[in-house]
Amino acid sequence: MLKYLPFFLLYAVALSAVLASRGFRGTAAPLAAPGDPAGKRRTRLLIVGATGATGRQLVAQALERGYEVTALVRETSRLPVYHPKLRVVEVDVLDYAAVEEVVRGQEAVVSALGHKRFLGPTRILSEGTRNLLRAMKAHGVGRFVCVTTLGIGDSAGRMGIYYTFFVIPLIVPFYFWDKTRQERLIAASDAEWVIVRPGRLTNGTKRGACRHGPGVGSFLATVRVSRADVADFMLDQVESDAYLRQAPGVARG
Predict the structure, then answer these.
(1) Tell me, what CATH number does 203's domain have?
(2) CA angle 116, 212, 110 (to 5 degrees)
């Protein structure tokens, strides 16, 4: 087995280089909000991927902040949450007509879209995001906040050695490849977008403080952050322009 190690290391390095080149790189110039008057707070959010661990945090925290939340899910039974300001809709994100209908009337879209089909080529993330962006443009919805991951674009390698040389090349290469397509679609859109790149996700409690910005992550150790803190940071971006049309990394403080 050791004789194959140099070839595997070469593959891992090459994959990291490709993920670096294909994901979003650099800082885009901010755009003015197309449909939100200055100073007006957004009140209606569509949360995509609401049954995932991060999505559930987004729903709970958005309701705590007073938003009117529409949760887009694959199966309504997987989100047994009841609240007067919550509407749960069962929609296939790959069905554009259904996506367009649920985007109508929203003021921002927050996406924690994900899946567990790691073992083969997939376009669920990119095609689902394409449908969301297209529907947002059709209905004048400006703000789009989307979670991807450290390890792609100009954060390539910043998930640490373990992920760069084991987890990404062996377990999730197709998943990460689709995330690069997803990022490029977002960056090419005329939406008011923010891409959020967390480190390794944990189920820890919300600390209310985390490191964020373009230099977050490590080429050696794996940085971590709780899903609760990621959700908190993502919801901050619904109103903040601090990272408008940028892709900050997020890690535990």
Answers:
(1) 3.40.50.720
(2) 50
CB of 53 within 8 A of CB of 201? yes
Domain tally, the chain: 1
CA distance 249 to 29: 18
What does the alpha-carbon distance between residue 160 and residue 59 come to, in Å, rounded to a whole number?
A: 30
What lies within 8 Å, CB to CB, of 102 at 6+ separation is 46, 70, 72, 89, 91
Q: Tokens 């995932």 label which residue? A: 52
pLDDT digits (tens, 9 = 90+) for 19-76: 999 999 976 655 554 445 555 689 999 999 999 999 999 999 999 999 999 999 989 8
Per the rule left: phi > 0, alpha: psi between -120 and 50, beta: everything else, 219 is: alpha
- Mind listing the pLDDT tens digit for each residue in 75-100? 988 898 899 999 999 999 999 999 99
What residue has token string 């009841």? 82
The range of the structural domain enclosing residue 143 comes to 42-252
